[in-house]
Amino acid sequence: MTPPAWSRLLPTLLDFERSPGRYRVVLREPRPLFEHTGCVMLLATGRPVEGLPAALAKGLELRRAARFFVRTVMLRPGADPFTLLGLHPDFEPAQLREHYRLMIRLTHPDFEVAGECWPAGAATRVNLARDLLSSPEKWADCAASLHARAAMRPRLLRP
After folding, report:
1. Stretch 64-92: mean pLDDT, rounded?
2. Are 25 and 73 in contact (CB under 8 A)?
3. Of the ranges 5-19, 48-62, 110-124, which is most confident?
4. Spatial contact of 63 and 40, defined as CB atoms under 8 Å apart
5. Got the DSSP string for 16-35?
6. In whole angstroms, what is the distance from residue 91 CA to residue 12 CA?
7. Per-residue pLDDT tens for 26-38?
């Protein structure tokens, strides 16, 4: 990721934690966080992020903000499998595997951090999403369903 992308991503991540109601997550806002969910997930797990200075990546404030985004947006009730795993419909199998591992690392009870709780059944939802997206037939059905649902949704006008 290029430095200009970091200059947008990190402040947006911190702003989302402070004022989540400002963004319409159903419209995939804030855009920088949805465009770089892989980086957000790496920050949430405390893993190194390519191109980001180690001192920034290890910051507790960024890690907390990234975990907040994962918990409130990616794991929100009714989130589709793509959102839940931070993927775009044209994802690569390696990306599915990587995002699945990161999400399980965050949500599975065996990896639970003291004093932090994830939504009930989060690891189960992550497993179901991976199973659905790893099967070409199930994936096609899911993509068609999401496309039909998006077509039926009334368009929200921006102020």
Report:
1. 92
2. yes
3. 5-19
4. no
5. HHH-GGGS-GGGT-SHHHHH
6. 24
7. 888 999 999 999 9
Residue 108 token pair: 């599975």
The Cα 159–Cα 94 span in angstroms is: 39
Place of tokens 């997206």: 133
Q: Which long-range contacts (CB under 8 A, 24 or more apart) does 152-159 make?
A: 156/24, 156/27
Residue 110 has pLDDT above 50, yes or no: yes
Q: How far is CA 76 from the centre of its chain?
A: 10
| Residue count of the chain | 159
Residue type for 100, please? Answer: Y
Residue identified by tokens 């179901």 is 128
* DSSP letter assigned to residue 36: T
Q: What percent of the chain has pLDDT over 70?
A: 79
